[in-house]
Design a protein that fits this description.
Layout: H1 5-17, H2 21-34, H3 41-54, H4 58-78, H5 81-104, H6 108-128, H7 133-149, H8 153-164, H9 170-175, H10 177-190
Helix pairs in contact: 1-2, 2-3, 3-4, 3-5, 4-5, 5-6, 6-7, 7-8, 7-10, 8-10
Amino acid sequence: MSINAETYIMDSRSFQRCGEYDLAIDSLFKAKSVDNDRRHEVEIHKLLSYNFRKLGQFESALLYINYALNAVRGLIQKSGEEEQELARLEFAICLMNKGVVYEEMGKVENALECYHPALEILLRLYEHDSSFSGVVINALFTIGALYYNNRQFSESKEYLKMALSFFESEERREEDRRYIAIINTLKTIED
């Protein structure tokens, strides 16, 4: 019995949860070697980028997130209207992931060059479907946190307040750790 790409991907996620990033990378390269129809190409490359980032191997992380972005571009070009929405979401998520790599490298401007176009894509998706509110909140929170960590408090406040407007119900807000983190950060800024 041969092992398929999905099995290797699941193994890599298990290794990730245990902090075994080298083993996760090994599993992902095995997944890549058996993913003949390239159905899992984007996911494999995103996960490779994540694991290399966790190991502090930022150049490799950038290499693989760029592979993922290129693969998604191909999907956008080949797909129909309905699939394009999901492909655009995937593209925005890859851009956000690339921004995180740059942010961890201390390259704030490069990170923002990834975050802002990703946010624009996510906001356009949200205009057509409010179920995208969660990823919009994540993007706004990420951008707000970057500004906060770089002591640009007015910019941070702008993005964090914008994120608050995407929380749907009062009950869900109180249970959502992002909401609590945003409120606490805004209080810190205002003090």
